[in-house]
Write the structure tokens for this entry.
Amino acid sequence: MKYLDPLRKGKIVISSVQVGRDTIFSIKDNGRGIAEADREKVFQIFRRARNTTDVRGLGMGMTFIQATLRQLGGAIWFDSSDTGTTFYFTLSKHVTLKSQKAALDSLQEDNRNSPQASLGSAA
């Protein structure tokens, strides 16, 4: 909802499909989309798209999501146009409890060490 086009009512569609041992999830929105020139930056830490200067953030969210999915043996990618973006990600049916805990521990550690956590605690 952060990146809605102010001229459209927001809509998000979430779906999934089973492919072998994996589940492919998709999250589709009708937001402002990701410009071609910014697509390579989506998963880079502290990088933000040019059309997002009016939205708060540090450019860390998608990096955390990608790192967590990788630790769980998954992947993430997207398609985008000026009428919205669809993010896809995979998770294996056979993710072990150990890999889930390692991903959660890593994410919590990253959150404790992030500049956003420092900013949040100062308020």
Observations:
- Strands lie at 12-19, 22-29, 75-81, 84-92.
- The helical segments are 61-71, 97-113, 115-122.
- Confidence is low (pLDDT under 50) at residues 116-123.
- The first helix runs from residue 61 to 71.
